Amino acid sequence: xxxxxxxxxxxxxxxxxxxxxxxxxxxxxxxxxxxxxxxxxxxxxxxxxxxxxxxxxxxxxxxxxxx
Length: 67
Fold this sequence. Notes:
By secondary structure, the protein is mainly alpha-helical. Helices cover 76% and strands 0% of the residues.
């Protein structure tokens, strides 16, 4: 992935957001079944990783301000 290409970065962000939403839906489904606590924890951890990655990529889209 070309780090300087805003279109590529925006596309990756959209992809990560879709995965984040899918994880959110799966976590809600698992909440109904307390036997899957381990999977729920893994999914929540992955969701946080995605959130961090999205934030990093979004910061790349913000132009640098001169000091």
